[in-house]
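Proteins fold reproducibly. Take a sample protein:
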Amino acid sequence: MNPHLFEENLMKVYALQRSFVAIASIAALLSPLSASARPNSADVAAASSAYSKAQVAELDGNHAVAADLYEAAHSFAPSPEALRAATRAREHAGHLGAAATHASRLLALYPTDEEAVAMATQLLKQLSPNLVQVDVQCDTPCLVGVDGSSVFDRPNNHHLFYISGGEHTLTAEFGEAGSVTRSIASEAGERESLSFEQPQPQPQVAVDPDPPREPAPVAEAVPHDPSPALQVVAPRNVGVVDDVSGSRPGGISRLWFAASASTALAVGGVALWSGLNVLTQDEAYERNPTKLAYDEGRMAERRTNILIGAASGLTAVSIGLAFMTDWRSASSRRSDTASLPSVNVSASKHGGVVELRGSF
C-alpha cells in the first residue's frame, strides 16, 4: 500500500472517530430510552474504540471483522451511524441475511433518520426476494439462534430476521428455564411465523428416604461332622488389618498419599496453563473486541478459577493424608507383625485344645 495513501486514510479514520464520539454522546443524552438503559461514558469510549478499529478493518478489506466491530459499537452505544455501517459491512462481506436483518432493525429503531430509512428500504427491496423472512414470537423474553449461531445479543418477545432458503434449525433460549428447538424448510421469498413458549419445569418425583428393607436371609445350619481326626488351625498371626491399604493400625499405606499428591500436581499444572491461556484470550480481545472473544475470555477465566479451587482442595487432602500415613520402614512393620500373638485351635475325639502364644 502507498504510505501516503495509508496516512491519508488513517487521518480520515481519526476524523470519523471524533465525529462518532460526538454523535454517540449526543445520542446518549437525547435517547428516549430510560436512564438505566442509556450508555455511560465508559460505554461511549468502548463504542468509539470499536468503531475506529472497524474503520481500519474496512479500509483493509476485512468486511466481516469490520461488521463485528460495528455491531459491538452499536451494542455499547446505539446510534444509526453504527448500525448503518454494520449493515453496509455485512452486505460487502456477503452475509446477506444479516444485512437484511440489520436493515429491518434500522427501520424499527430509527424511523426518523432519513438516511437510515432510505438505505434500509432500498436494501430490503433488493435482498428480500432471495431470502426467507422469519417472524418469531416468545411468550417471555428469549434469545433466538439459527443453526447454532445467535441472531440477536439481547432477549426479546419479538424477533424479525432474514435467513437463506433451505433447511434450518431454530432455537429459542429461555435462560435457566431451558430451550425449545424447531426445524423449518422454506424457499426464498417465503415468510415463516413461529411462536415459542417457555418450557415448564418438570415435577420432581418424591423419593422415600427410608424404603422398606427385605429381611436378611437365614443362614442354613451346617451339619456336625463327627470325624475323629477333625482339626481346625487358626492363622498364626492374628491382628487387625486395614481392608483398603493392607497396613496395620499404625497408619494408612503410602500409596494413598502418593496418588493424592500426584493428582494435585497434575491439576495444578493444568491450572497454570489455563491462567496463561486467559492472558492470551485477553490480548486477543484487546485486538478484536467482539462478543465471541469476550465470551471465550469469560469461559477461560471461569475454567481457571475452577481448576485453582480443585488444585487447592487436592493439596489440602494430601497434607491431611501425610499425617495419617504409616511412614515406617518395611522391616519395622514386619517386626511388629512378628510380635503379635498367635492362636492354635485343635479338636479330636479325646477333646479340644486351644493354644495361645506371644509376648505380653
Remarks:
- Residues 1-36, 227-248 have pLDDT under 50 and may be disordered.
- The longest strand covers residues 132-146.
